[in-house]
């Protein structure tokens, strides 16, 4: 853990903070070899690498509708209701993001300009899995795509050792509206979605979180498909003053740490008293949490900083551009209005990251590693495209005729100029 005043942080310490727990291993060559084999050998390569990496022999790559339905009805009914509650909230939030399907506006007499929205046809959603189940990720990746109007959403998720997919993952994908589910994980899943095989439908875009292998594979297939954004270890930054609850803040720090040993948790506060209490509370909670083996490893990535002013906290946060930003201050509107770089923002002591992770309705697939400076979290706009429209009468074209001719001829594109002139030839 790093605990000190912001002004005393050395350049080396700052560099370490902004490296997000250290550089990830370079796996580009390994990933490239696997992708090439999948591209050339399709299903045969998918089965080979599933055996190698997931220790599972699979016969049918796609999960049958019968298997999905059986899983749904075998999951505890009370848990299904919780999934449906979360799905409802996620769907409602993303429906509010939908743009107008088409609009037109007259900008000059005889010139109508507008825009048409069209959903992508085929989307691939990566849902981590294997022995564990991450139903929330199935909901977060599939539901926005379906809200946007995507015709086909294919889910890839790693199988368990016996070749089956965790029933809770299947149930959540069914609730979300997935059209196809494939028992594939890791690089082989990304390759299958990007290239298509006999069993797997090729997609136009791949979304969803994953480890360094999955992220590297997504980056390498961008000449074939689009992706949402690069993703790294999970992270939270908390801006707080003396109004914050130390126990609550510490619990959110520990919650991020349990993701993996590279997870990053930062508190920057104007209150020395709060910093001391949070520091003690983090160490206490880290001992008692069920995943304390992982938390202990990631404690090295905890940073507690004391700043002189709230403005200094805001400046540091925007430079870091966190995946998750929590604001625990008296004047939270002041901070919220000034923040520019954050994947998802949680305001107040009773707005933990876990709310957005599971049930409030916002999306938890978010840019990490500073990418919040240039990327938005997963939303409806990731699944649609915009086409501009112009509807121009002769009168309208005459209004801009001279401008078109002048600029096109200056660029030496005389056929462009003639295409306008010919419309006014007697």
Automatic annotation (TrEMBL):
The active site is at residues 323-324. It comes from Methanohalobium evestigatum (strain ATCC BAA-1072 / DSM 3721 / NBRC 107634 / OCM 161 / Z-7303). PANTHER family: HISTIDINE BIOSYNTHESIS TRIFUNCTIONAL PROTEIN, HISTIDINOL DEHYDROGENASE HDH. One of its GO terms (biological process) is L-histidine biosynthetic process. Its cofactor is Zn(2+). Signal peptide: none annotated. The keyword rRNA processing does not apply. NAD(+) binds at residues 126, 188, 211. Catalyzes the sequential NAD-dependent oxidations of L-histidinol to L-histidinaldehyde and then to L-histidine. Keywords: Amino-acid biosynthesis, Histidine biosynthesis, Metal-binding, NAD, Oxidoreductase, Zinc. This is Histidinol dehydrogenase. Binds 1 zinc ion per subunit. It catalyses: L-histidinol + 2 NAD(+) + H2O = L-histidine + 2 NADH + 3 H(+). Substrate binds at residues 234, 256, 259, 324, 357, 411, 416. Zn(2+) binds at residues 256, 259, 357, 416. One of its GO terms (cellular component) is cytoplasm. Its EC number is 1.1.1.23. It comes from the Archaea. Pathway: Amino-acid biosynthesis; L-histidine biosynthesis; L-histidine from 5-phospho-alpha-D-ribose 1-diphosphate: step 9/9. Belongs to the histidinol dehydrogenase family. GO terms for molecular function: histidinol dehydrogenase activity; NAD binding; zinc ion binding. HAMAP family: HisD.
């Amino acid at each position: 853990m790093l605990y000190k005043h912001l002004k005393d942080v050395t350049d080396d310490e700052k560099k370490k903070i902004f490296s997000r727990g250290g550089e990830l291993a370079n796996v580009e060559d390994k990933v490239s070899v696997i992708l090439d084999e999948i591209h050339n050998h399709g299903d045969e390569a998918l089965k080979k690498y599933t055996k190698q990496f997931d220790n599972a022999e699979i016969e049918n790559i796609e999960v049958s509708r019968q298997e999905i339905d059986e899983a749904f009805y075998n999951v505890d009914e009370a848990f299904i209701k919780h999934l449906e509650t979360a799905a409802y909230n996620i769907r409602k939030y993303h429906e509010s993001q939908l743009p107008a399907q088409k609009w037109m506006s007259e900008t000059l007499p005889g010139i109508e300009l507008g825009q048409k929205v069209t959903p992508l046809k085929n989307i691939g959603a990566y849902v981590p899995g294997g022995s564990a189940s991450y139903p929330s990720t199935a909901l977060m990746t599939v539901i926005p795509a379906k809200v946007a109007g995507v015709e086909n959403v294919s889910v890839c998720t790693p199988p368990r050792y016996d070749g089956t997919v965790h029933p809770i993952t299947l149930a959540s994908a069914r609730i979300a509206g997935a059209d196809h589910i494939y028992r594939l994980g890791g690089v082989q899943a990304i390759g299958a979605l990007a290239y298509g095989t006999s069993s797997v439908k090729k997609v136009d875009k791949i979304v969803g979180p994953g480890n360094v292998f999955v992220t590297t594979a997504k980056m390498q297939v961008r000449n074939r498909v689009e992706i949402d954004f690069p993703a790294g270890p999970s992270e939270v930054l908390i801006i707080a003053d003396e109004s914050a609850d130390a126990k609550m803040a510490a619990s959110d720090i520990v919650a991020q740490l349990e993701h993996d040993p590279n997870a990053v948790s930062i508190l920057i506060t104007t209150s020395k008293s709060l910093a001391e209490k949070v520091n003690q509370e983090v160490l206490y909670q880290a001992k008692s949490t069920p995943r304390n083996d992982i938390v202990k490893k990631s404690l090295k990535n905890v940073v507690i900083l004391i700043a002189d002013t709230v403005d200094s906290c805001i400046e540091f946060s925007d430079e870091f551009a966190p995946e998750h930003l929590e604001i625990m201050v008296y004047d939270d509107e002041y901070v919220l209005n000034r923040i520019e770089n954050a994947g998802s923002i949680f305001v107040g002591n009773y707005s933990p990251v876990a709310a957005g992770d599971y049930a409030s309705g916002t999306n938890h697939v978010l840019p990490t590693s500073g990418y919040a400076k240039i990327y938005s979290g997963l939303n409806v706009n990731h699944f649609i495209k915009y086409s501009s429209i112009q509807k121009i009468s002769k009168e309208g074209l005459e209004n801009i005729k001279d401008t078109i001719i002048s600029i096109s001829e200056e660029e030496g594109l005389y056929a462009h100029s003639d295409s306008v002139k010919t419309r006014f030839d007697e």
